[in-house]
Amino acid sequence: MFYAQILTLFPEFFDSPLSCSIPKRAIEADIAKVDCIQIRDFSTDKHRTVDDKPYGGGPGMLMKPEPVVAAIREARRRDTKTHVVMLTPSGHRFTQQKALEYVEKDSLTLLCGRYEGFDERICDEVDEQLSLGDYVLSGGEPAALSVLDAVFRLLPGVLGSPESAVLDSFTEEGILDWPHYTRPEIFEGKSVPDVLLSGDHAKIEAWRKTQAEIRSNVRKKKA
Ligand code: ADE
Q: Ligand 1: distance of its center to the CA of 133 in Å?
């Protein structure tokens, strides 16, 4: 079973997304298990403080090291072989390749921050820093959820057809998926390409490959 722990100030953020669609299926089938750890529970003062002002001045507040590090250590105590990932816009970019790597690890701990970021000394306690993209979210929670979704759908037995995950965009050499069509054959004057109706499987496969390559090249030029 794949075990995910989420370190967060907002465990309730995950309730609804994890109780529908693919994550729900993975959890109900005992293919995945998710535990949230409330970082605030590891604060030791009576106000349950988890943030503080940055030394040197400047706007915003930072996540304090003591409760966050204690929460990370609790996650490691619960599962000694877990891989701890800090979600931060300054981390390495999350990719399909990373999702495939995480599936193999069997246990992931996702650390979500709020406020302006983490005290730098927290970074020494994690195995990796990960970013969803070059934009700033109000917290790591939406990023953690994206990571879990991308990983869960790759777990054996979660998707309806075992080929779907493998055939996905990006999986093979980072190439984008080809265009897909379903019924009706003509929608608002736009027809399904003839080749897809031809029944010639070799031709269809060649067309899909070319289309995927065209898309990948267009996307590269835009990036
Ligand atoms: N926290 C805030 N912004 C983020 C991002 N882009 N990726 C991961 N975690 C974040």
A: 7
Percent of the chain with pLDDT over 70: 93
Is-catalytic flag, 74? Answer: no
The angle that helices 21-28 and 141-152 make with each other, rounded to 10 degrees, is 60
Separation of CA 39 and ligand 1 centre (Å): 18
pLDDT for position 176: 82
3-class SS at 105? Answer: helix
- pLDDT less than 50: residues of the chain: none
For residues 4 and 18, is the Cβ–Cβ distance under 8 A?
no
Domains of the chain by start residue, with CATH: 2-152 (3.40.1280.10), 175-222 (1.10.1270.20)
Contact indicator for 181, 193 with CB cutoff of 8 Å? yes
pTM score, whole prediction: 0.93
Q: Is the CB of 117 under 6 A from ligand 1?
A: no
- 34 secondary structure, DSSP code: E
- Give the number of the atom of ligand 1 that is nearest the alpha carbon of residue 132: 7
